[in-house]
Every structure is written in C-alpha cells, then in structure tokens.
Amino acid sequence: MAGIPLRHGAFLPPFHPMNENPAACIERDLELMQWLDRLGFHEAWIGEHHSAGWELISSPELFIAVAAERTRWIKFGTGVISLPYHNPLMTANRIIQLDHHTRGRIMFGAGPGLLASDALMLGIDPNTQRDRMAEALDVILRFFKGEIVTERTEWYNFVGARAHVLPYTKPHPEVAVVSAVTPSGGRLAGKYGLSMICVAATNPFGYDALGANWKIANDIAAEQGRQMNPAGLRLVGPMHIAETRAQAMENVKYGFEAYLGYLNNNQPRFIVPPGKDAAEWFVENNYGVIGTPDDAIALIQRLYDKQGDFGAFLQQVHNWADFEQTKRSYELYQRYVMPHFSGDNRPRIDSFNWCTDHRDELTEKRSSAARLMFDKHEAEQRDKAAMVRPVKGKEAW
Which pTM value belongs to this model? Predict the structure, then answer.
C-alpha cells in the first residue's frame, strides 16, 4: 500500500448536454455533492467556464457557497479559477470570504484558463495567459499573507492594496495549480510550494507527462530550499463502474458519445476509428475506466506504478450515465475501491484468516467447552436427584 493515505474526490467541470434544462443540471450537480458527502468522499473541485455550451458553472465560488450549506464534511476547491480573467485582489477576497463561510472547507485552485473561446471573448491573447496566471498567483499569495501591495502590470494596477480580512485558515487555504501536459503548473508549484492537480492523468499524453512535471516541481522546490509534498498531488481521471463490465458499457450509452463530441468540438483529441465502438476504444486506449470496481482499482494502481505516492484520486464528473446509475457508480467506488487503498479491511481479513488457520484448534476447544457444559449439567442433575431421594424408615412422616 502507498505510504500516504489516499484521499478520494471529484473534479466537476461540469459536462451537460445542451438539450437539458440548465437550472436542473446545476441542481443535479449540487445533489451529487450531497451524495459524495454522505458517501465519505474527501473533496470536490469545481470548474469555471464561460463559453462552448456544456460547462455551465461560471463561478465556482457561488456553486461552492451553496454546496457547502448542503453538506457537512466534504471540502471544496475551485477547479480552477482562471486567474487572467479576474482582478487578483477580487479573487483573493472571494476565496477569503469562502474560507470564513465554510470554516476552512475551501481550497483555492488556480489556472490560466482552458478554453481559448473564453479568453477571446475577453480580448485576451491566449499566449499571455500563463504569464498572467503567474503574476496573479504571486500577488494573491501576498494578499493572503496580509501584505500591502503597490504594483502595476499591463493588466492590473494596485496602489497600497491589501486584503482587509485575512483567511480563516492559517496561514491560508491550501493552494493548488493545475497541470496537464505543459510544465507551467509544475514550475509554479515548485516555486511556491503549492499542490498540483494533474487534470489529464489518465490521458496518454498527460500520463506520459506525470513524472516529468512532478520532477520539474521538485527540482524548482529544491532550488528554493523546499521539498514537494506528494500528499498535495492530485490525479484526475474519468470512470464509470457497475457490477459488471457489460452493465457499465450499457450504462454509458446514455451520454458517452455526446461527451466525446463536446470535447472534440472544443479541440479534436479523441478520434475514434470508423466502425469502432467509442466506449470500447476509449477503454482500450487507457483514457479511463468503464467497468467494475476491480477495473477502477487497477487504474489507480497503474497511476501508482507510474507516479509513486500521490495524495488524491479525483474522478472526472462526466454524466456518461443517467443520474441514478452515476450515483450507483460512486457508491460502488466507496464500498469497494476506497477500502482497498485505505486498508480499512485488512484487520478484518487478518482476523478471518487467523481463524481459518486455527480452525481445527478452535473447533476442538469449542467442542471441548460444549462437552464440559453437558457434563456439568448432567452432574448437577444427578446431585439434585440425590437430594430429593426418600430416606428409608421415614416414609410415613
């Protein structure tokens, strides 16, 4: 088993087909957060998007504020706030406020912005987004610490700026940067000692980049005199599980091809060969799992074999199946996948196996104890009979 206890969570973009009621879709996402909370999932990360039709949440902070009121234990992260789209002081203040609202159940995930269509609507050159993310992240971390900032760049200007309320969490909420294929996330994580979310961990390209990006983070952290903590490394992958592989494949007929169609509409990435079943092709090429709890365990183990220790596995929320089957998938994961990696059942298994190994001895002891009880009972009955036996010569009394 891994040296670091594995946490389990969800990464919610979210993905919703355009023929559904958007208000109902968002409500269902909130219901899913409640379901994950009841099942004991540790965290959920909520995305930010402003175009392309499918990913409906434009403000992860608003969604988290509602979800936090409906749940008890699960932690929520922004997955992620696209920093070039926001004034850094306003972003810092919103996270600080959420930290107070949730009494520390908030995590701050930051990224450059994924959809080029979002950036173009704002008149932002996509080539500038990663540099702007780095500038914004630096100043946000300074605001979290209570620093007073005077700084001008080409896209913001601060004059004696400060956060007049500091975080509830000390020194501040956990901060994570997104990493896919490029080294930008690893560079920032190493520079500031931040957590990392590898959003394409099971995608062959992202899978191949795992070790390289983590090494970049570790090398840069070492230059700063720090060590990266693998507990802050989160790997994201899509899966749907059922009692059998055949049932899982049947379940995803509901929405899998539409999901691929959306992803390819944004950027052609998943090109299924003509005549090939899309879901089977997806699984065969190791993009994710459509199968059983054992298949989910095998995927996570494959990530361990590639990466070594990491802190959390996040299921990408995708709506391949209808809502009840989706909930069932997370329930099966909670029942069978979580305890496999936590080792919670190891003492039970050890106890069962010990009994098996000592079965003959235990059977003999139980039989011996039973015989002793019968012998004791019979002896007591004989003694009682002797006490009430009539005495000769006194029958007439």
Answer: 0.93
